[in-house]
Structures are given as structure tokens and as C-alpha cells.
Amino acid sequence: MNSRQTFGSPMQHARPTPPETRTRALLLRAALIVFVLLPAADLISFAILRLWLHKEYAPTLGFVWAWARSTWWHSTAIDDSWAPMRAALDWLHAHAGGNLYDRLFFVDHVKFQYAPSALLPLRALEALSLDSSDAALNRFDAWVILLNAATCGLIAYLLAGRSDTNARFRWHWAILATLATLTYFPLQRAFVLGQVQVWNNALFALAALAWILDRRLLAGALIGLICLLKPQFLLFILWAVLRREWRFCAGWLGVVVIGGVTSLIVFGLSNHLGYLAVLRALSRTGEAYIANQSINGFLNRLVGTDATPDIWKANDFPVYSPIVYLGTLCTSAVLIGAALLAPLRTRAQSRLFDFLCGALTFTIASPIAWEHHFGIAPVIFLVLVLSLAVCAPSKTRTIALVVLSASYFVTGVWLRGSWMLAGVLATLGLVYWSMFSASVRDPTTGPPAARSRDTLTNPQSPT
């Protein structure tokens, strides 16, 4: 009688789901988000905003098609970066020894916001009599995006192979990561604009790969190359010094010193000092244009420093607001301070999440963070999902996966407003949680059983 009552009783515990089954289900859900949900949302947004409401909308699928055409058939001639760079070089040719920024930025109001060192690649192409047309540069960009996607695929393959749960599916993760990177909105946005940011996004993916392979010198050199093009990652040298990552520092300094000295010789000291004045001016106002997905951009739009933030002003900046300036200064100080100091003396120090946290923080904290600057995010999403894949089932893991999916969605489709900022801030929160949570292990380590007691008690990676 008792046996009949207990057989099939609701009190009987359900058999736990095998890890491989959970990973297979997670892969399927991720594929549905990347290949079904996001394209559907992109098409619906295009139909509503562009066709019905006649508002500006940036379709990701259209960007992917433009990239494919430029790679294999007809290259585009868009010049968001190339035009101001050429204007700067032309001015320097005509005014040897003159101060580029005094005239071009402050008088002519051309939004040339690059450091002089960013002109070195185009100057080298000119000196070598090589094709530096918009079409040629954009075709090169198209192949750089392919390199970026392949790098993310390789990162997925390597990290999945270091986990018992993911190892069987490492090719699945690699293919998913490659295709998800190719169809990621900020990455393709940089391409269709004709942006040098395409190079930075790829350099960051390569730097993350070098970090995973414990090639600290190479990782530092690649981050140094990014700094020569755009200054947001200059804080990485302080980040590395605080962690005593001396090989990273050596690589960073080698590239930045050589590039900086070359730039000083070619363009002169006055132009480099003039660039500091540009940075001061940009930090005072930032940009209110809707594509600026930084806290500064959000505050500018909230305060109303620009009556029409949906419209790009090629020659104007928003009016100065002390609320925006102080708000940007305070939030940037908090974000940067947390990224530099919080992981110290913890198991998170110098781990992959620490590295990714620095990159995402330094981007968000900048007064101007265009949507295409977040083309660094595919690596971060990839590392997060692979880490969550090996976590034991729990409510916290489920919430983290939901937040990760939502963050990927609002950054992978152009929803206007400040949705992308919300997504990257949520992603940054997940990175912090992954750094400090005992239930999430660093994805660069091997299976838990293979780790020694020394690895657990002395988490700092070798320098």
C-alpha cells in the first residue's frame, strides 16, 4: 500500500538536467535570438519607423548587405572618418608648421576629433603612392570586419574547449560567435559610415585573444595601436601598472612611444598641444546627437542642450551645461575608479573579466561614445554567455541570462533613444557580477577539477 502511494508521488525529485542538454538548449536559444528575433525586430522597426513614420532608421540587415557587397563586389565610398582625415592632411600640406586644430576645429568647425597620430596610416599610404581612396579604405574595412568575426569565432572555440560542458560544442560556439559578430549592429554601423573605428574594434578582439593566450606583450601592443587612433584606451596603462602587468605595459609603451615620436616628427609639437585643447572642449560639452550613447549624451538629451538631437550637426556642438559637465565628470570618475580599483586584491585581478571590464568602462566613461564604439562588445557577450553556460542551474543564472539576452537585443538593433546605453550598462553590471561571484569561474581556466589549490588561492596571473 505504501509503495503504491510513493510511486509517482509529486514529492519525488525530478532528475537533474544533464550539463550537455543545458548547453544544447542554451545554444539553440542563442541562435534563435541572433538569427530570428533580431532580424525580425530589425525588419519590423524598419517598416514602422522608415516606411510608416518616415523617420531615420539604421537597418542592420541593410548594413550586412552593404558589407557583403563591399567585400566581394562593389565597395562603398562613405567617408565619416576619411573625409575629416583628408581635410586635415590637405590643410597640413598647405600650411606647413601651422596649428591644425586652431584653424580646422575651432575656426572652420570641422569635427576633426582624431589625434595627429591617427593620420599616420593615411600619410603612409600617400608616401608609398598607394590607393587611399574611400572605396579602397572601405574595402579594407570590409576584410577587417571579417577578421574581427573570425577572431571572435576562434575565441569561442578556445574558451569552449577549456570547459567540460562546452568542449563538445566548441565548433557550434565558434560558428555562432562568427556569424553573430558579422551581424552585430555597432560593428556594421562603423563599416557603413566609413569609420576607422572598424580597425579599433578588430584590434580589441585580437587583444582579447592575445590575453586569453597569455600573450601579455602582444595584448599591450594591440591596445597601444588603438590608443594611437583614439585616446579612450589610454587609461589601460594605469590599469596595467596597478596590476603589475609589466609585459602588457612594455607592449603598450613600445607601440605608443614609437607611434607618438613618429607623429611628433611628422606633425610637430604644436599640433599635439592643440589636440589637448580639442579634448578639453569636447569634455565640456560632449555631444547631444542621439548616436552618442554615453552618459554625457544621455544627460545632454535629458537637459535639452540641443533642441533636435535626432539631427546631426556637422559644424556645431550643444551649448555648455554645468549639469551635464558635472554629471559626466562625476559618473566617469566613479566608473573609472571602480574599474581600476575594485578588482584589486581579489581573485578577479588580471583575469579576463577584469580586462573586459576596463575596456567597456573606458568606452562608456568617455564624453563621446558613438554607437559604433561598442563594436568591442561581441567579445564581451561571448565570454559572458560561455561563462554562464557552465554555471549550475539557479535563479541567479536564469536572471543573468535574461539580462544578457536583453542587453544583446537592445544593442544589436537600433532602437533610438538611450537603449544602447542601457544595454551596455547592464552588460557592465554582468561583467562585475561575473568577476566577483563565486558561482562563475574565469573562462580562461581549465575544468574545475584540473585546477590546483595554488591557482585558487593565488589568482593573480603571471606577468
UniProtKB/TrEMBL annotation:
Keywords: Cell membrane, Membrane, Transferase, Transmembrane, Transmembrane helix. The keyword Flavoprotein does not apply. GO terms for cellular component: plasma membrane. It is a multi-pass membrane protein. The keyword Oxidoreductase does not apply. Residues 444-463 are annotated as: Disordered. The chain crosses the membrane at residues 26-49, 140-159, 171-187, 219-242, 249-269, 319-340, 352-370, 376-392, 399-415, 421-440. It is found in: Cell membrane. One of its GO terms (molecular function) is hexosyltransferase activity. Belongs to the glycosyltransferase 87 family. This is Putative prenyltransferase UbiA family. It comes from Caballeronia insecticola.
